Amino acid sequence: MEKQKKKLSHFSFRMNLLFFSVFLLFSVLILRLGFVQIVYGENFKRDLERKEEFTISNPVPRGHMYDRKFKVIVDNNPKKAITFTNEGFSQKEMLVTAEKLAKLISKNTDKVTERDMQNFWIMKHPMLANEKITLKEKDLYDAKKITDIDLYKLKLDRITKDELGLSDEELEVLAIYREISSGYKFTPQIIKNEDVTEKEFAVISENLQFLPGVDTTTDWERSYGFGNTLRSVLGKVTKSDEGLPAEQLDYYLARGYSRNDRIGKSQLELQYEDVLHGNKSKINSSTNNTGNVIETKLITHGKKGKDLVLTIDMDLQMKIDKIVEEELWAAKKSPGTKLTDRAYVVLMDPRTGEVLTMSGKKIVKNNETGASEMEDDALGTFTTTYNVGSAVKGATILTGYKTGAISPGTPFDDAGIKIKDTPLKKSYAYLGKLDEIEALKKSSNVYMFQTAIKIGKGRYEFDQPLSFSNKNAFEDIRNSFASFGLGARTGIDLPNEQTGFKGQSKLPGYLLDLVIGQYDTYSAMQLAQYVSTIANGGYRMQPHVVKQIREPAFESNELGTVAEEIHPTVLNTIDVKKEWMNRVQIGFKKVMQEPEGTAYKFFEGATYSPAGKTGTAEAFYDGPLRSNYGKDPPPVMNLSLVSYAPSTNPEVAMAVLVPWAYEGTVDNRASLKIGRRVMDTYFQLKSQ
């Protein structure tokens, strides 16, 4: 009995101890839970309710471009598109999405590279990829003598061709995965926007709940109402897979662009990117602590880019383009023209600086067929420069007036200038004794030489060295020329304008070449600005190709309200007396309207009272066939023509430039043929 009592006593004690221990533990747990709830409860509650917010920006259509008569030049064509937005998905999740998509859409696999296939194989077969690393290499990795990058490269190098063989279905999955994984987080990435069928678009739209991150939308591509006319000036837009240019990445990111946004990358599209780009729609999404999207809210509606109304008259532009093409082909068939391959025409309103047309054409060789064909080179009107010859003589005369070298009516004999140890410098024929007006009319070189000698304060004796006491003669003439736009930036609202090449030597003979346009080089746009300055009485107008910026319209076929008007800008005025300018204008009028004027035979009978100046420059060929001639490029003749009309109250100014027009002495007169047809066309269209 005593033994049983002792056993019961021990058992009771143990049970009590157990119950006490359990009680104690529960008490500690309750105290701990109470402490956690009281002290940390709010923090844990916030963690449970924590959500991450991010904003997705969706692109909007770019602004349109219209010509001065409001005809659509550049438009947007809508395209069905399928996009993917990485909302923080893992590689595995994105691969699953790619596999689902591959069953619903077809995807071109042309862009898949061997490296893509290797990366894909490693992702699909991680165990097999790890087996390609030897124990020794693993030891080196553990010893930190090689890096993760080194190991990954070893895996890539050891993948066999047999292992890399993918089926068509797998390639399609890879092509889709490649697009999905290349996107930036929270930024829509286009998976497919070419040839998306109605069926594909519909089936994706119906299954969006099973395709996390995938969406259907409308994408846009540029379309051109006038085909390739003026395309080089209108510019290009980056493609959806190009993204922002690396060298300007920070610039665009700071302005709210996404890394894969399309932007204007050349000419007008680039120059007016801020205007054309528009404001993207912004959608704010929230995710819970597991990464699932729990709320989506529209922050701002997108706004299409603003529209540009250009100064260009596209009907006139196309007619001028046709004239340039026809005359360039005709000139190419003339004797001594194997190097002739390009021509440029600029029409400008001398009162406002509005560019009406900028035509450039170039004959190029088709690398596939070997045949010659014509391509647009309107950019060449302001990005390429050439010796232009006597067209600059109006600036020479006005510079002579300003410097006191000559005065109205100053006569010079047209006898040639002979500097010691140099060939005789003369006009194309002996023109007798003449004043500055007749010198312009007949295009006397010698009159300009004598003017340059006076500007340089030089002393000339036949067959003796020529020197100048005015050591700034080159700068004086160049600065004066620049006030007309020659050798200076015209200020046109397009990028990459070239100012031209300035001859480096300061030998006295080159000063004589400078004043007849055979030393420095100029562009067709500079010539147009120069002749406009003479036409309007001395105001150098800034040329511009954008006339208005307009707000986007509610209806696609309407014009929005004017947001900004581009007003005429006077860059500078020419510091000359009105009498002096009048005398140059008279000389220019005689060039085209009186017998013995150098352009009279081509402009005889023109009813619009033209005025202008011809130019022929001796130059050396520097074109695409230059390497064929070694160190001795052949001498060629550049042809130019500047003009305006009517001679009183002019409304249009023109510059024509035909580089490397011919070799030898057979002048094909291409610049004058083009010039007459262009001016006739302008006034014919005006009358209509």
Task: State the gist of this model.
Belongs to the transpeptidase family. The protein is an alpha+beta fold and 688 residues long.
Could you characterize what this model shows?
Among the domains are: 89-184, Orthogonal Bundle (Arc Repressor Mutant, subunit A), CATH 1.10.10.1230; 314-538 and 574-687, DD-peptidase/beta-lactamase superfamily (Beta-lactamase), CATH 3.40.710. The protein has 24 helices and 20 strands. Helix 2 (91-102) crosses helix 8 and helix 16 (393-403) runs parallel beside helix 18 (445-455). The chain is elongated. The N and C termini lie far apart (137 Å). The model has no long low-confidence stretch (mean pLDDT 88).
Q: Give the biggest beta sheet.
A: 7 strands, mixed
Uncertain spans, ≥5 residues at pLDDT below 50?
none
Measured by DSSP, the beta-strand proportion falls in 15-25%
Instruction: Report the CATH C-level class of the domain at 314-538 and 574-687.
Output: Alpha Beta
For the residues shown, what is the average pLDDT? Answer: 88
- Total count of helical runs of at least 4 residues: 24
In one word, what is the shape? Answer: elongated
CATH architecture of the domain at 314-538 and 574-687: 3-Layer(aba) Sandwich
CATH superfamily of the domain at 314-538 and 574-687: DD-peptidase/beta-lactamase superfamily
State the total count of DSSP E strands: 20
Task: Summarize the amount of helix as a percent range.
Answer: 25-40%
Q: Indicate the radius of gyration in whole angstroms.
A: 38 Å
Query: Which class best fits the helix and strand makeup?
Result: alpha+beta
The rounded distance between the terminal residues' Cα atoms is: 137 Å
CATH topology-level name of the domain at 314-538 and 574-687: Beta-lactamase
Membrane topology: Single-pass membrane protein
Keywords: Cell membrane, Cell shape, Cell wall biogenesis/degradation, Membrane, Peptidoglycan synthesis, Transmembrane, Transmembrane helix
Domain Penicillin-binding protein transpeptidase: 344-679
Domain Penicillin-binding protein dimerisation: 59-297
